[in-house]
């Protein structure tokens, strides 16, 4: 089959979910074409990548590109362009928007495809009819923000989609439930395929013991939904109890200044380290030299970093945000704490610290075994091959 995957940009080195999926499909003989809005971030050398027309800049530049693209589509792909124009008319879109849709999706219209798969729900707007116009089936993935947050700001944004999509991919049961919250009508088949990791790369190794006995770590973009401010408040409570610790936060993002100021106000400057963005192999080293992984997000689709930490034998404490309570089985493979409750997080951290070594080893072993069996790349790739049949 020929499968089109619509993404904001080519998969970056850290976006293993997409790269592993693409490699698995290609290994089974399928052709994958990646459609992107820009090609500045990352590359994927083994896959055909087509970039959308760049409709930004001066009015003259945008006008010239638009006219050229529209004429090209009408000359070489008239039937598909016409179908898209008419399908959009049936949905009540105005003439100007319909013309924009033909121009903006010209790079997709030009390709013969069996499936057109939008990698995020938010990529589908004004493209709900493209798959039908080119004679392909349509699939959409929902991963977290696109169904947990975006519809709150844009009520009813997916109502056009529900009647047109053939299959929906979700990464957790909680994400599945959110579809119904936002108007899903039950027509399309929903298939859950969770994230997966390289369990051969992420595995427990002999490592240097942390210089601080209670050494904690989080790998996350510095974004409000990661709940890092609540995590810092929990550590401030631990400090008041006289508990010695060090907490390392790996990642970069727009909340850095706010979080750094919070560290100052909470008098945690000697207890917290921000590393910024570091290479993947260095992240593995940091995990090796930590005791406990924390992911106290307030919105989270699933989180690969938690899977990686479990695979490396780290004790994990997470929030109950969406997929995290499926990623971690409470009191079996780690611990799940309600969101927005730094006092409860502090209490759980203290209890975990006080557990005897045998209890800790049992939890860590359970987590490692479950990740190896359920969240390996081979299983994920097979499920995606089956997804399109």
From TrEMBL:
One of the record's GO molecular function terms: glycosyltransferase activity
Entry annotated with the keyword Signal: no
Record keyword Lipid biosynthesis present: no
InterPro entries per the UniProt record, alphabetical: Glyco_trans_1 (IPR001296)
Annotated ranges, domain Glycosyl transferase family: 208-369
CDD domains assigned to the protein according to its UniProt record, in alphabetical order: GT4_PimA-like
Pfam families (alphabetical): Glycos_transf_1
Keywords recorded for this protein, A-Z: Membrane, Transmembrane, Transmembrane helix
Transmembrane regions listed in the UniProt entry: 59-79
Record PANTHER family: GLYCOSYLTRANSFERASE
Name the record gives this protein: Glycosyl transferase family 1 domain-containing protein
């Amino acid at each position: 089959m020929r499968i089109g995957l619509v993404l904001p940009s080519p998969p970056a080195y850290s976006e293993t979910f997409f790269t592993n999926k693409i490699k698995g499909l290609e290994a089974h003989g399928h052709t994958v074409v990646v459609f992107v809005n820009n090609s500045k971030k990352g590359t994927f050398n083994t896959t055909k990548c087509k970039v959308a027309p760049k409709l930004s800049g001066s009015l003259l530049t945008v006008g010239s590109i638009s006219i050229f693209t529209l004429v090209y589509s009408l000359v070489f792909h008239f039937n598909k362009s016409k179908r898209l124009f008419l399908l959009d008319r049936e949905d009540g879109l105005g003439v100007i928007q319909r013309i924009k849709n033909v121009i903006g999706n010209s790079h997709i219209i030009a390709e013969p495809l069996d499936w057109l798969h939008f990698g995020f729900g938010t990529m589908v707007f004004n493209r709900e009819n493209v798959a039908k116009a080119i004679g392909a089936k349509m699939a959409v993935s929902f991963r977290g923000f696109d169904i947990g947050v975006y519809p709150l700001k844009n009520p009813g944004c997916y109502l056009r989609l529900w009647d047109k999509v053939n299959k929906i991919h979700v990464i957790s049961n909680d994400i599945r439930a959110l579809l119904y919250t936002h108007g899903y009508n039950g027509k399309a088949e929903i298939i859950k395929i969770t994230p997966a990791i390289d369990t051969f790369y992420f595995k427990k190794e002999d490592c240097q013991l942390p210089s601080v006995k209670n050494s904690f770590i989080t790998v996350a973009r510095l974004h409000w939904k990661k709940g890092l401010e609540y995590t810092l408040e929990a550590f401030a409570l631990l400090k008041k109890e006289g508990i010695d610790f060090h907490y390392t936060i790996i990642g970069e993002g727009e909340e850095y200044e706010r979080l750094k100021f919070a560290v100052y106000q909470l008098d945690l400057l000697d207890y917290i380290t921000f590393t910024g963005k570091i290479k993947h192999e260095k992240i593995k080293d940091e995990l090796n030299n930590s005791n406990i992984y924390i992911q106290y997000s307030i919105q989270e689709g699933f989180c690969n970093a938690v899977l990686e930490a479990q695979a490396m034998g780290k004790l994990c404490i997470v929030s109950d945000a969406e997929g995290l309570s499926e990623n971690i089985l409470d009191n079996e493979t780690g611990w799940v704490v309600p969101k927005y409750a730094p006092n409860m997080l502090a209490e759980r951290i203290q209890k975990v610290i006080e557990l005897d070594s045998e209890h800790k080893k049992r939890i860590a072993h359970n987590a490692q075994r479950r990740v190896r069996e359920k969240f390996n790349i081979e299983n994920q790739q097979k499920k995606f091959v089956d997804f399109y049949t």
